[in-house]
């Protein structure tokens, strides 16, 4: 029997068992959407870490490190910088204690901001889910090269994730993440020193690779570094999945403590991922993986490590991708249920009906994410696109809700709309025809973020200030 297949089967059965164990405890809307607001700091740390480190890091970040070396950590560093500020936001978010980011947008601004927030989140989170399907499909193809194509793998992973996510909601997702987080941490940290030894030690890796692989910017310009840093930082600051975890916390203290553990874990694991990819580029500078560098972690595990450790690493990567897909599929489903169905269609819906609709939304959004995955070439490019939509459209107004009392509802609506519009149209033929190349050659994050921030500040200053009732929940 293929030992990799056996490990993937064990992981799948274990995750299913954890998920099913939470079903009987999921009886109300609050149970499904925010785990009954009962998650302790220990569980929060691992579910936050598991939702953050997925295919964006394991595929996109690893591909970047394979090509450019440790300069790829500019993308990770954006998240670390965001976490420093999040430490001060976490207790405020738990105190607010709603269900979704659009809840926050309506409470602070108005219904229009809520609806536009839902639209931006749907674009972002289904895009993120889509490249988790790509990552899972890649692993299944590596394990079963003659049996499963990469596209067939996407279908299998999509079905798997949709079922898991629909079963028990946030409670299921959070407790699966504890198992996955422990597995991934042990596998990554255990594999790295073995790979360094196999590559001839640190000196062997240095001799095999260009000097730029070990420089702060490497072969990137400062602008390119910032194009990696800013979207990640701003996604982190406004990440709805994160806020839902804070809304799910047992207390404000648990929310704050979880950020400390999350920061430490993110730095350790993302540096380890980059280091494994860089070591992999020294071990496999040419050949099959050179044409598909996003597969470098799993490829290295299968072709360089001792078999038992390689199996462990591939299984951990697989589980991590499943975890992130669960989180980012579940989050927009809660938006459609809480911010559209309950808010505008069935205000008095029973808990049973809400749970049925919630699971239906998971299925529909999962199919949409699958469609996107079948039409995506680059995980890195797709991840930066998704991050930019969220960064420009939502992060400024979310932070303003907590930190700038002068922000007005009109300004928030215009900021969200313009940030989304600039991002999704930046690569269009119209923009490239009517603007100079010096602008269009840049990633969308700069024009989208500047447009969003400028409109937020300007319109806030020329419109009447918000009322005391709008500010009260954020005091």
UniProtKB/TrEMBL annotation:
Keywords: Membrane, Transmembrane, Transmembrane helix, Transport. PROSITE patterns: NA_SOLUT_SYMP_3 (PS50283). One of its GO terms (cellular component) is plasma membrane. It is a multi-pass membrane protein. GO terms for molecular function: transmembrane transporter activity. Pfam families: SSF. The chain crosses the membrane at residues 6-23, 35-53, 73-90, 115-135, 155-175, 182-200, 220-238, 259-284, 304-322, 354-372, 384-404, 411-432, 444-462. It is found in: Membrane. CDD domains: SLC5sbd. Belongs to the sodium:solute symporter (SSF) (TC 2.A.21) family. This is SSS family solute:Na+ symporter/sodium/proline symporter. It comes from Granulicella aggregans.
């Amino acid at each position: 029997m293929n030992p990799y297949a056996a490990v993937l089967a064990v992981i799948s059965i274990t995750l299913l068992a954890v998920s099913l164990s939470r079903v009987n405890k999921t009886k109300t809307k609050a149970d499904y959407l925010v785990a009954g607001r009962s998650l302790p700091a220990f569980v929060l740390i691992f579910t936050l870490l598991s939702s953050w480190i997925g295919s964006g890091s394991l595929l996109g970040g690893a591909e970047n490190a394979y090509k450019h070396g440790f300069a790829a950590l500019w993308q990770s560093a954006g998240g670390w910088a965001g976490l420093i500020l999040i430490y001060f936001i976490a207790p405020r978010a738990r105190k607010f204690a709603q269900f979704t980011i659009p809840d926050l947008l309506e409470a602070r601004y108005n219904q229009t901001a809520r609806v536009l927030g839902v639209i931006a989140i749907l674009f972002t989170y289904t895009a993120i889910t889509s490249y988790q399907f790509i990552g899972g499909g890649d692993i299944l193809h590596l394990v079963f090269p003659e049996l499963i194509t990469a596209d067939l793998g996407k279908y299998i992973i999509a079905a798997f994730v949709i079922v898991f996510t629909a079963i028990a909601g946030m409670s299921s997702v959070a407790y699966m993440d504890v198992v996955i987080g422990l597995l991934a941490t042990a596998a990554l940290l255990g594999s790295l020193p073995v790979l360094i030894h196999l590559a001839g030690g640190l000196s062997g890796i240095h001799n095999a690779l260009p000097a730029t692989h070990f420089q702060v910017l490497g072969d990137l310009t400062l602008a390119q570094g910032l194009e990696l840093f800013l979207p990640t930082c701003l996604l982190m600051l406004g990440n709805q999945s994160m806020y839902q975890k804070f809304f799910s916390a047992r207390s404000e203290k648990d929310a704050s403590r979880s950020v400390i553990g999350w920061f430490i874990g993110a730095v350790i694991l993302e540096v380890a991922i980059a280091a494994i990819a860089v070591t992999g580029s020294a071990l496999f500078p040419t050949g099959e993986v050179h044409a598909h560098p996003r597969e470098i972690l799993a490829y290295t595990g299968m072709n360089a490590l001792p078999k038992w450790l390689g199996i462990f690493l591939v299984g951990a990567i697989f589980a991590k991708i499943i975890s992130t897909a669960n989180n980012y599929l579940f989050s927009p489903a809660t938006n459609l249920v809480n911010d559209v169905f309950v808010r505008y269609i069935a205000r008095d819906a029973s808990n049973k009906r809400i749970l049925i609709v919630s699971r239906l939304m998971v299925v529909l959004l999962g199919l949409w994410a699958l469609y996107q995955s079948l039409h995506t070439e680059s995980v890195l490019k797709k991840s930066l696109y998704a991050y930019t939509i969220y960064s420009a459209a939502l992060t400024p107004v979310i932070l303003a809700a907590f930190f700038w009392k002068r922000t007005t509802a009109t300004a928030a609506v215009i900021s969200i709309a313009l940030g989304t519009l600039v991002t999704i149209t930046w690569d269009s033929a119209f923009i490239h025809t009517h603007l100079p190349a010096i602008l269009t050659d840049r990633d969308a994050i700069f024009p989208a973020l500047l447009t969003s921030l400028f409109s937020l500040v300007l319109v806030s200053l020329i419109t009447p200030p918000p009322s005391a009732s709008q500010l009260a929940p954020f005091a």
